[in-house]
Amino acid sequence: MTVALIDSGLGLLSTTGWLRHLAPELELLLLLDPDGAPWGSRTASFVTDRLFTAAQLAVQRGAEAIVVPCNTATVTAIDALRERFEPRVPVIGTVPAVKSAAATGQGIAVWATVRTTSSDYQDRLIADYANGMPVARVACPGLAEAIDHGDMAAAAEAIADAAERTPKNCDSVVLGCTHYPLVAPEILQSLPAGTTLYDSAEAVARQTLRRLDRTRESHSTMGSIDVVLSGRRGNLPAGAQAHPVGRALAAAGRVPREILISAATRSPMAAPAI
């Protein structure tokens, strides 16, 4: 069984890691778009076109589910993608975990890209799921790009800047960009002790398995991991090697639980060495 994951860059790694951990027998098809990245700065029509092109290729390659682990692509075109491919091929999108964070009753901050932070999409998400609680919107300029390039020094600078602008009463921080879980340990280390990060990668992976009726974990076989870069067969970008889950996926082996970020992860948390 083949599952395709589509994103412009390394934002798909966390969800891919969870799928590889929970169901390593799946054949995974990773469709990245380095020629068009980053999608966050592109027009809606551009993102829709690139997403549909990748999805059509995925179906041609035998994908039985399409996962979109990208907030920009999800809000831009997930409805159109579902209209085109469902019910024959399930389409699973990604939404930041604002609802889970709000359920705790604690102060909330949402870390996201500059464009997402100022978007109507995030405003609607907060209005729908924050239960009327005040939510601090923290833009993280340059962080996603630094993560994509594997530039940990630049990522550390962006994290420190965002942490400085995060209100001290925010005990819950929602990761509003799918790149950010790749540096979750560094984010937690920059925030006050006891802060909880909320991420949606685990939930998206589990929802994918539910849609495929594969809720039982199986470790009897190891599926392949194929990478397509803007329509060309290739390998994970060099930047993936800067992140433990990227290294594990590049090795095409098992992804251990300890390098994955849970739906809710509390500090302190040490950076994994794998």
Question: What class do helices, strands and sheet pairing give?
Answer: alpha/beta
Individual helix count: 11
Q: Into which percentage range does the β-strand content fall?
A: 15-25%
Sequence stretches where pLDDT stays below 50 over 5 or more residues: none
**Looking at the chains present, what oligomeric state does this protein adopt?**
single chain
Helix share of residues? Answer: 25-40%
What can you tell me about this protein's structure?
With 274 residues, the protein is an alpha/beta fold. It folds into two domains: 2-94 and 202-259, Rossmann fold; 98-199 and 262-266, 3-Layer(aba) Sandwich (Rossmann fold), CATH 3.40.50.1860. 39% of the residues lie in helices and 17% in strands. It contains eleven helices and eleven strands. It has helices at residues 13-22, 44-60, 71-85, 98-102, 114-117, 120-129, 143-149, 152-164, 184-190, 201-211, 244-250; strands at 2-6, 27-32, 63-67, 91-92, 108-112, 135-139, 172-175, 196-198, 225-229, 232-234, 264-266. The strands form two sheets. It has a six-stranded mixed sheet with strand order 4-3-1-2-9-10, sandwiched between helices. Strands 6-5-7-8-11 form a five-stranded mixed sheet. Helix 2 crosses helix 3 and helix 7 (143-149) runs antiparallel to helix 8. It is globular, with a radius of gyration of 17 Å. It starts with a strand and ends in an 8-residue tail after the last strand. The model has no long low-confidence stretch (mean pLDDT 91).
